[in-house]
Each structure stands twice: as structure tokens, then as C-alpha cells.
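Our preliminary data section would be incomplete without showing what the modeling component actually yields. Below, a chain of 306 amino acids is followed by its predicted structure, encoded as C-alpha cells that our downstream tools consume directly.
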Amino acid sequence: MKNKMRSPRRYAPVALALLLASLSSSCSLRGLFVRDRALRRNGKLATPAQKLLVATRDELNDRIAAFYNSIQSFQATVDLTPSVGSVYKGQITEIKDVRAFVLFRKPADIRIIGQAPVVRTRLFDMVSNGATFRFYYSPSNLFAEGANDAPPTSKNAIENLRPDAFLHSMLIKPADPATEVTMLEDATDEDDAIYILQFVGKDADGRIFLARNVSFSRVDLSIVRQKVLDGMGYIVSDTRYANWQPYDGVSFPAHIDINRPKGGYGVVMDIVEMQMNKEMTDDKFVLQRPEGSKLQVIGAPAPAQH
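Predicted structure:
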């Protein structure tokens, strides 16, 4: 029986390996045919000694739970950079030098008071109890109130700011076992080393959808990004986190970049001062309508505050 001719393709990987080894070991040929490709991790050049951390989806979800459960309340002074526009509209305009004070108390009370650049007069004041919101915008003398899930109605994107949007970006929740299932993606490449924890939900009709995802750096397993999507897969919010710092023993990102492309606005927050887990009284979360302001009720009317 004649011997069948062996395909040269079987030897291609071996030949390629020998060629690369020869070129790598030869100083004279290395510069001509071989170069080291720079890798980046967390925006910095990686080194051969840098080891990437390994974690399971349950371990990453536990990290989120530890972060969320460590916070009961906080009071923060922040520098804000609000912006209007979005990547979908092709233009983003920023407003610099806005100082703000953020108050939060679990389960869902949040208040944000913004001061105008330079003069530091009140620019806006908004409060939410988790179900309803109240919002005052002084340049328009507008007082709006309604349900948190009420759609934005103003052509001025700044008037569509909602305290609930800040809350869901600043606090990252672990998976709800009753409504969410997690899946892990290793998105390590030449530009970064990232784990992406996908949160898959199910609607009332039993259809599954990608609800959100949280990205972790594989250098230190810190949270670097969270994206929340609607049922059609469009981005509701895209938040990036950096410069995690300890505040009263609780780790929290000192830089938070919030983008709301569907709402047409975004906010960059840089923490100046933070007091973590301090007792807060109910009056801290009461916003009265200023006399003479224009009232706008959005969606279901908010209950009166006394």
C-alpha cells in the first residue's frame, strides 16, 4: 500500500514556533522581524511581573454585596460637571465648577443640592424617597414632582435630572436571586484586563433580557463600570468608577462618571469630602416648593410633604 502524502499543514504550527524562537533568540534579526507589543492595564502600561487576579461569578457578586451592605448612609460634598447631549446626538456640552451636597439614607432616601459656579447660589435641589421625587431648578423657577419612573418631558435636559438616577449609579446592588441570574465574561485583551458580570433578568411574559452588567479590573478586582439597559438593549445609564478610597472604613469611588444617553445628559462627580454611615433625620430629605415657583406634575403626582 502506498504511503499517503502527509499534509504540510500539519507541520505549519511547528515550523512557525521554530521560526519565532529563532527570531526571538537572534539579536540581529529581532529588531527586523520581532517586536514586543505593549499591553495596558487600568490605563497604565502592564509589566511582565504583573499578575492578573482570578475570581468566579459568585465571588464577584459577593464583592458587590459587601460594598452595598457596608453603606447605610452618607453625606458627601462633591464637585459636579453636568453635561447635556450624548454620543447618540454627536455633541456633549459640559457645565464646569458646580459644587453639590449629596445626602443618602437607606433604603432609598436621597437629596442633592447643587450650587451655581462662582457665586454658589442654589442652582437645583432634588429629593427622592425611592418612589417619588421633587425637583427645583432655580434658573427656570421650576418645581417638578412625580413618580421616579415618569419619563423626562423638558427640552432642557438639565430639568430632567432625577435623584433616583444618581442613587442607582452611586450604589451598585448585587444580584437579586428572585429576578436576576448572573453570567461571567472574561474580557481580557491587549488594552485592558476586565471581568464583566452580566445580570440577566426575566420580564412578566417570561422573556429573558440583559438587565445590566458590572465590570471589574482584574488587576485589583475593583469595580470600574456599570451599564444598565432597557428591555430592548439600549443603554439607560453607563457609569464609570475610579480612585476608590476608604471613608470611615468603607471603600467608595472618589470619581464617578454618569452618562444617561437616553435622557440626553450626564454628570461627573468628584468627591471632596465624605462622611459615611452618619445618622440622618427625616427633615434632611424634605424639599418644600418655593413660593411663586411654577409647578409641573410629571406622571403620578407625588404625595405632599409637611
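The chain has a mean pLDDT of 84. The longest helix spans residues 12-25. Preliminary results of this kind motivate Aim 1 of the renewal.
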